[in-house]
Design a protein that fits this description.
about 180 residues, mainly beta, 2 domains, six-stranded mixed β-sheet, 3 helices, elongated
Length: about 180
């Protein structure tokens, strides 16, 4: 049985890949997100993928956010604002994807007790902790990411075409995993 907390409404929009997306509506309360039965959410292409719920658990999609392709959102994750989650991407745990963020390809975003793990386009992993950021095997000070140039990104093994997505996701994740006062 699917653990679905929404139904599709008749309000639609077209995704960047020409898929029809449907606004969702809560069919039960989701106290963890402050969602009440009947609240409207964001947009998804289907309720399920291969028998699994596209958005499950206490996860929610709201605002103008979009989840499509084979993407899934689960656990206590929240996708909101104008964010897009597409391709084979997974957003789970307590992760939040928001603003104009785009999570796609085989990316996985998770938040675990002050650590966020990103896998960007299946090319390399990024782990954000309260002290440092690991990109692949490279250790980067949190302050360095804010001023990192595309050339510096490439020098640590990143692909130039992923720089914008890397920077946007990492800066967003850094807002969620804040250093303690003693680590600033």
């Amino acid at each position: 049985m699917l653990n679905v907390s929404f139904k599709l409404t008749s309000e639609t929009k077209i995704s960047g890949t020409a898929e029809t997306l449907y606004r969702i509506e809560a069919i039960r309360d989701i106290p963890a997100r402050g969602i009440k039965k009947g609240d409207k959410g964001g947009f998804v292409s289907t309720i399920e993928i291969n028998g699994d719920a596209r958005v499950s658990g206490n996860a929610w999609v709201s605002g103008n956010a979009q989840v499509y392709g084979d993407a899934r959102v689960s656990g206590n994750a929240w996708v909101y604002g104008d964010a897009w989650v597409s391709g084979n991407a997974r957003v789970y745990g307590d992760a939040q994807v928001y603003g104009n963020a785009q999570v796609y390809g085989n990316a996985h975003i998770d938040s675990i007790d002050g650590i966020i793990i990103l896998v960007i386009a299946a090319s390399y992993s990024v782990t954000i902790t309260r002290k440092v950021i690991f990109t692949g095997c490279q250790v980067i000070k949190r302050s360095k990411v804010k001023s990192m140039t595309i050339d510096e990104f490439v020098s640590i093994g990143g692909k130039a075409e992923y720089f914008k997505a890397y920077r946007q996701m990492v800066l967003g994740a850094m807002k969620l995993v804040k250093p303690s006062k003693s680590e600033k």
